[in-house]
């Protein structure tokens, strides 16, 4: 991805935060395409009736539906794509298994999913799905083959492979297969883990026999989506590596025959052709929107006002679950200013949260197009704790020098080192001012503004000296954020852990914890660190998974979850709460456990949470379909221009 | 050091050696040593004893940190003073002659004036003006005498008339998207430009002259190898290589200066070599050889001074290239964004160009004028210093 | 050394130089951590596999477990057999990517070069013919202006004026238009203008100063006295000798611009040419593509320097082959 630098105030760091998370297999970024604002998604329906719909009435069919993308695509191979933008481009020609509509309801596209207990899930594949010749009809065996031979194989390293670890899949009929989970999950579809592209079994077979990863990656049929048949609203005509993609209308689109979807789908899609244009320069993207060359484009917050005054364009504001936060390094190579890492003390993190004026940040940097962020969920989540249950650092009475200093004093009291305030400045045991660095991705205007703002607030309200440093996103990821060279436990032939080296053992809250499965993003206890030392960073934002908050176990389940680069050890029994949420048999039990979890996280501030920036997207006047909702774009195939 | 004919004991003029030997220092060199020594000590102190982020002058209570680049900059300033400015003063007659020649070229005089402003601004500016602070609420203020639609700035500092926000003298050139004062940032950018100009020039001159003279004097296969090496340096795609280094290892302003100057001396070395070859054919060199001067003495005493005056022109014309490269890197968003250079300012304002053009225009014009000034200056110096040469290197 | 031998030696030398630069690039890149290996490790860790084994496997797959010299020879062999590998950031063979980008680069480079070559000496000689008149001053001013204004800055200003405010040129470069069409001319006019302005200055200056010498030469006076038309006189007696020094300046000038500024111009105008290809390859750490584009630029630089030297030798009889 090469967005950084080219489109300064675009809000995506070099490794787009969404793409990046999905590269780790944490989320099907592709499924999140709909919320990127550039369109995406698909239609839905699970029945199969022939309701006609071929009458191709002239319902305001404009010629081309064109959108703008900021960066060119690395690949359109559905098995290996991990980018948001490319996911959008694929979605024009190839539907995914299911989507969620504006009410957060499951909408089956290729298959419906049902379960009794959350452990055994049955997939019902829609009938009448056709690949292009010579691959024939889509059946359950195509999906099962894809899961077992690609996603669960040791050689293919597909992006979705982690989603299927430990899942037993079995074909139970021509259009039906079953998946058995290790532990029950009521919200499995919401995690996007069971989301699949349809890929013909015959196409994959030669590569599976040879275990040919390179071949699979470079297969032209996959790269050009030549097998897509009637599986998408459009057919991919051309992929110009720098220019983008071009599609023509798919007259056989299977959702036209679905009777359980809004009627709008009967005629879908409403455009003769579609395009995704890659326009690197932000100013040019906006120019293209103004002249009508594209039908939608993201608009930077500081220009929303002026576009609202434009008659030809309307701007939608779409809340997002991706956060802006400060990561504070609690590992041994953090807090480079002196002894005793203060970031490890809860009151200190609270002090930092209280020292930063969230409303000021949102007004100044995001021009009010963002929401305050107090706990690890956006406000639109069903699992957002009651406002009165969570501390709201950084606004109202909980903002300011006095509050922050008070909290910092508490932290100093907890620490064995003699940190204190010397007049206005925070000083270390030697009496020198506390000096820390804060990294942001180079070339990201919004991020840089935010970093400067944070540095000023921490200086004014806590007397810390914060140096803002720009860094390349990839470099930060490789040298500061992750560690690939970490100690590994000894295993026997069955893969069971036999001996854990001392470096991988630490005492957390009085209990001994062993890192039996270290990862690059959690390579061990706090003494296992990345190559370069660092204090604070705003380089990566993370997904807070409002649809299925259980997915947040990758961040917070105990001291050694999959993803914990900052070395956060929960001070409450997070494992227990996740466990009870997993075991919940009713929505109420689930909500209770999760709400308690999020109240605790608000208290602990594992990351210093700041804001949820909204997407602000401009559309040509008259375009019907966009909604101001996180699910925006789920019914993209049915979008059209009104009369 | 290869000598063409081994020295004969009886030919050596011992008096000459003791007077103008390699340990005989001019007032310039003494001055240089005396001033550079404390700088070196400070540098060592800063490197060894002061914490990474502690201010260098904390021991005298000054909150000012010197980076490596700053040390190099001061060092080159000292060099320039002792070996460029002082000699001009020591030789008033020659200086007057140069000035007379130079004065005839009016654009060059104006250029010199402009570069003087940039130089003084770059040195004094950061001492008297506070570093530009982020003030988000006053982002996008228009420059004085101009106005923009009221929705552009977050809040308008000046008057709002008919829905248009007018600029004020508080921010004569307007403010950026972070509410930083553009004028202040341009003044801070002068420092960076001057640092780039001085340090790169010094490195290029040192390496180029050393390489060129050595090559010329060594002759034979050594000369061949050295010149072939120069060929490689000359055909090196420096800009590309720097991108490569930047991306693999990361790099700041210091790295930029080092890499670019280490690949820029090729032309200078070639030039110096041919120049010293022709000088070595001159009668006075032959006579000093006969009177027993060592190769070092010949090079140091005759060749370098003769070559130096003519390469000043060449160096002056190299500087704009460096400034341009820095700006280009910054524009691509991969420069060192913590450095307040003009290029960074242009890059920061790029996406706002359609509604806040001053953020790009102001530093862009300043950059343009500076590059222009260096070109005019180089052109004029060429005429003034070697009147026989044609102004070929426009 | 005869001329033939000199040329042979010079060409061989160019080969050596390209090899050296290629080697340096290879070493630089092999010293950097490989993102593919890191990704494989992460993947394995997340799947509960053994990251060390996964890293080993990934290294094996990419041949990274071979000793450095083996990889180096493989690499060199690949370079000269045009097997430049697969670009992971574009999902196409590197050679295809380079050739595709070259197509767009050529579209503006060729008119740019032709215009510079024709206009530079013409304006220079014209300027010399009218020396110290307002025309000369205007031409000189223009030369310095073009030389001093940063290409990318000039580009965005013109794009702002003509694209955004006046809307006479498209803001987004359109790759679909035919090469020889009005649309293509319109969208390439400004980039070509910017590049020509940047490269023409030096040529104008050199040809002006050179031709000034011939201006008052005896043969010119004779020609005028014989009643030769001024146009003819200038064409034969001034232009021709002027072209000798000019042509050497030209190669160096164009080369420098091609390697540096064309990238910026491509970025500003959104032309998917070689410069942008290189830049994006670097950003996405696509090692094969970085190597491929670096190789290409290196060859251009080396060949350009070669041509410059040869042209210089051929045109200027004063240079002997031995004194190089």
UniProtKB/TrEMBL annotation, chain B:
Protein's recorded name: Binding-protein-dependent transporters inner membrane component
Organism: Halorubrum tebenquichense DSM 14210
Compartments, as annotated in UniProt: Cell membrane
Lineage: superkingdom: Archaea
Membrane-traversing stretches: 25-45, 71-89, 109-129, 192-217, 315-335, 355-377
GO terms classed as biological process: transmembrane transport
GO CC field: plasma membrane
UniProt domain ABC transmembrane type-1: residue ranges: 190-378
Membrane topology type: Multi-pass membrane protein
Keyword Membrane: yes
Entry keywords, A to Z: Cell membrane, Membrane, Transmembrane, Transmembrane helix, Transport
Family: Belongs to the binding-protein-dependent transport system permease family.
UniProt feature coiled coil, ranges: none
Record's keyword annotation contains Membrane: yes
Lineage: Archaea, Methanobacteriati, Methanobacteriota, Stenosarchaea group, Halobacteria
TrEMBL record, chain C:
Sequence intervals crossing the membrane: 12-32, 110-129, 141-165, 185-204, 242-269, 289-315
Extent of the signal sequence: none
GO CC field: plasma membrane
Principal location: membrane
Matches recorded under Gene3D superfamilies: MetI-like (1.10.3720.10)
Record carries keyword Transmembrane: yes
Localisation: Cell membrane
UniProt KW keywords: Cell membrane, Membrane, Transmembrane, Transmembrane helix, Transport
Limits of the ABC transmembrane type-1 domain: 102-308
Entry membrane topology: Multi-pass membrane protein
Keyword Transmembrane: yes
InterPro entries: BPD_transp_1_N, MetI-like, MetI-like_sf
Any single GO BP term: transmembrane transport
PANTHER family: INNER MEMBRANE ABC TRANSPORTER, OLIGOPEPTIDE TRANSPORT SYSTEM PERMEASE PROTEIN APPB
Protein family according to the UniProt entry: Belongs to the binding-protein-dependent transport system permease family.
Protein name, entry field: Binding-protein-dependent transporters inner membrane component
Source organism: Halorubrum tebenquichense DSM 14210
């Amino acid at each position: 991805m090469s967005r950084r630098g080219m489109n300064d105030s675009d809000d995506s760091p070099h490794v787009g935060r969404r793409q990046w998370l999905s590269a780790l297999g944490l989320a099907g970024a592709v499924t999140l395409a709909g919320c990127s604002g550039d369109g995406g998604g698909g239609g839905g329906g699970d029945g199969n009736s022939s309701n006609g719909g071929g009458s191709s009435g002239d319902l305001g069919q404009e010629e081309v539906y064109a959108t703008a993308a900021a960066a060119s695509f690395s690949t359109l191979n559905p098995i290996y794509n991990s980018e948001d933008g490319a996911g959008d481009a694929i979605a024009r020609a190839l539907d995914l298994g299911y989507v969620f509509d504006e009410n957060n309801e499951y909408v089956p596209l290729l298959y419906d999913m049902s379960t009794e207990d959350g452990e055994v899930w049955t997939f019902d594949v829609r009938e009448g799905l056709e690949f292009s010749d010579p691959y024939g009809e889509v059946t359950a065996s195509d999906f099962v083959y894809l899961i077992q031979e690609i996603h669960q194989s040791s050689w293919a390293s597909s992006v979705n492979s982690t989603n299927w670890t430990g899942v037993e899949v079995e074909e139970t009929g021509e259009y039906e297969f079953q998946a058995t989970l290790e532990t029950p999950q009521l919200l499995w579809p919401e995690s996007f883990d069971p989301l699949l592209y349809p890929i013909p079994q015959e196409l994959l077979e030669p590569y599976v026999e040879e275990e040919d990863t390179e071949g699979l990656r470079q297969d032209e049929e996959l790269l050009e989506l030549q097998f897509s048949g009637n599986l998408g609203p459009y057919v991919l005509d051309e992929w110009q590596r720098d220019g983008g993609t071009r599609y023509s209308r798919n007259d056989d689109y299977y959702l036209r025959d679905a009777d359980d979807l809004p009627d709008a789908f009967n005629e879908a899609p409403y455009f003769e052709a579609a395009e995704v244009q890659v326009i690197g320069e932000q100013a040019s993207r906006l120019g293209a929107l103004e002249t009508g060359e594209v039908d939608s484009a993201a608009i930077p917050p500081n220009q929303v006002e002026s576009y609202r005054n434009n008659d030809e364009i309307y701007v939608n504001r779409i809340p997002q679950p991706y956060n802006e936060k400060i990561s504070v390094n609690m590992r041994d190579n953090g807090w480079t200013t002196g002894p005793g890492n203060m970031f490890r003390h809860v009151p200190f993190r609270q002090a930092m949260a209280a020292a930063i004026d969230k409303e000021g940040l949102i007004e100044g940097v995001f021009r009010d197009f963002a929401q305050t962020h107090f706990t690890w969920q956006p406000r639109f989540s069903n699992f957002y704790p009651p406002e009165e249950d969570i501390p709201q650092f950084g606004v109202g009475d909980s903002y300011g020098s006095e509050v922050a200093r008070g909290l910092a004093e508490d932290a100093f009291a907890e620490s064995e080192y003699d940190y204190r305030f010397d007049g206005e400045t925070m000083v270390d045991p030697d009496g020198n001012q506390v000096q820390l660095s804060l990294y942001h991705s180079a070339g990201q205007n919004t991020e840089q503004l935010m970093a400067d703002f944070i540095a000023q607030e921490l200086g004014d309200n806590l007397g810390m000296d914060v140096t803002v440093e720009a860094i390349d996103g990839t470099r930060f990821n490789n040298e500061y954020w992750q560690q690939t060279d970490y100690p590994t436990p000894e295993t026997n032939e069955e893969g069971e852990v036999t001996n854990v080296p001392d470096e991988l053992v630490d005492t957390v809250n009085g209990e001994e914890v062993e890192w039996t499965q270290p990862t690059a993003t959690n390579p061990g206890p706090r003494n296992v660190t990345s190559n370069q030392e660092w204090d604070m960073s705003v380089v990566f934002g993370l997904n807070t998974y409002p649809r299925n908050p259980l997915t947040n176990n990758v961040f917070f389940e105990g001291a050694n979850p999959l993803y914990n680069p900052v070395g956060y050890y929960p001070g409450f029994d997070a494992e227990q709460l996740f466990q009870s949420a997993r075991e919940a048999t009713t929505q109420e039990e689930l909500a209770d456990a999760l709400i308690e979890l999020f109240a605790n996280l608000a208290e602990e501030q594992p990351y210093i949470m700041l804001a949820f920036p909204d997407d602000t997207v401009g559309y040509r006047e008259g375009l019907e379909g966009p909604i101001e909702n996180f699910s925006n774009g789920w019914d993209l195939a049915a979008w059209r221009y009104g009369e | 050091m290869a000598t063409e004919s081994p020295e004969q004991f009886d030919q050596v003029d011992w008096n000459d050696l003791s007077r103008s030997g390699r340990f005989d220092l001019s007032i310039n060199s003494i001055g240089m040593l005396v001033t550079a020594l404390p700088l070196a000590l400070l540098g060592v102190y800063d490197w060894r004893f002061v914490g990474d982020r502690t201010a260098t002058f904390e021991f005298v209570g000054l909150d000012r940190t010197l980076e490596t680049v700053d040390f190099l900059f001061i060092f080159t300033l000292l060099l320039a003073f002792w070996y460029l400015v002082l000699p001009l003063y020591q030789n008033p007659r020659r200086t007057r002659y140069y000035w007379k020649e130079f004065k005839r070229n009016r654009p060059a005089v104006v250029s010199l004036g402009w570069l003087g402003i940039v130089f003084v601004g770059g040195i004094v500016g950061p001492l008297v003006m506070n570093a530009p602070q982020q003030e988000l609420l006053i982002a996008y203020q228009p420059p004085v005498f101009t106005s923009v639609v009221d929705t552009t700035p977050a809040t308008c500092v000046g008057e709002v008339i008919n829905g248009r926000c007018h600029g004020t003298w508080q921010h004569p050139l307007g403010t950026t998207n972070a509410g930083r004062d553009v004028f202040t940032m341009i003044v801070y950018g002068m420092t960076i430009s001057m640092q780039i100009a001085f340090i790169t020039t010094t490195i290029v001159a040192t390496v180029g002259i050393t390489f060129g003279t050595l090559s010329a004097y060594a002759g034979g296969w050594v000369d061949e190898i050295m010149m072939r090496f120069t060929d490689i340096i000359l055909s090196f795609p420096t800009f590309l290589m720097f991108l490569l280094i930047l991306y693999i290892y990361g790099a700041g302003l210091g790295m930029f200066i080092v890499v670019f100057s280490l690949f820029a001396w090729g032309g200078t070395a070639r030039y110096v070599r041919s120049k010293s070859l022709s000088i070595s054919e001159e009668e006075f060199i032959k006579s000093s050889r006969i009177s027993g001067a060592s190769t070092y003495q010949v090079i140091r005493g005759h060749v370098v001074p003769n070559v130096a005056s003519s390469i000043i022109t060449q160096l002056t014309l190299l500087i704009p290239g460096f400034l341009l490269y820095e700006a280009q890197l910054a524009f691509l968003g991969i420069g060192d964004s913590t450095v307040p250079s003009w290029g960074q300012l242009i890059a920061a304002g790029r996406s706002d160009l359609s509604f806040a053009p001053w953020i790009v225009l102001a530093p862009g014009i300043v950059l343009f004028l500076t590059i222009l000034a260096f070109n005019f200056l180089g052109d004029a110096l060429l005429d003034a210093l070697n009147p026989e040469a044609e102004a070929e290197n426009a | 050394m005869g001329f033939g031998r000199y040329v042979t030696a010079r060409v061989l030398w160019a080969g050596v130089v390209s090899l050296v630069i290629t080697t340096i690039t290879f070493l630089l890149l092999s010293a950097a951590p490989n993102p593919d290996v890191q990704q494989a490790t992460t993947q394995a860790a997340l799947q509960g596999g053994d990251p060390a084994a996964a890293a080993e496997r990934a290294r094996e797959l990419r041949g990274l477990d071979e000793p450095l010299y083996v990889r180096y020879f493989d690499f060199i062999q690949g370079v000269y057999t045009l097997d430049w590998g697969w670009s992971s950031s574009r999902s196409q063979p590197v050679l295809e990517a380079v050739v595709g980008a070259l197509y767009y680069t050529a579209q503006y480079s060729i008119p740019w070069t032709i215009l510079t070559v024709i206009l530079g000496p013409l304006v220079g000689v014209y300027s010399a013919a009218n020396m110290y008149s307002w025309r000369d001053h205007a031409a000189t001013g223009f030369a310095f202006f073009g030389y001093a204004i940063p290409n990318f800055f000039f580009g965005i200003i013109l794009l702002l004026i003509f694209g955004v405010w006046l809307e006479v040129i498209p803001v987004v470069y359109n790759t679909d238009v035919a090469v020889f069409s009005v649309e293509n001319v319109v969208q390439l006019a400004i980039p070509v203008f910017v590049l020509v302005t940047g490269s023409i200055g030096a040529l104008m200056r050199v040809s002006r100063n050179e031709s000034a010498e011939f201006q008052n030469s005896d043969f010119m006076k004779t020609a005028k006295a014989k009643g030769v038309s001024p146009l003819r006189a200038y064409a034969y007696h001034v232009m021709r000798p002027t072209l000798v020094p000019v042509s050497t300046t030209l190669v160096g000038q164009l080369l420098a611009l091609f390697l540096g500024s064309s990238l910026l111009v491509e970025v500003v105008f959104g032309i998917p040419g070689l410069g942008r290809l290189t830049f994006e390859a670097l950003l996405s750490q696509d090692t094969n593509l970085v190597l491929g584009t670096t190789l290409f630029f290196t060859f251009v630089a080396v060949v350009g320097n070669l041509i410059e030297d040869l042209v210089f030798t051929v045109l200027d009889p004063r240079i002997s082959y031995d004194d190089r």
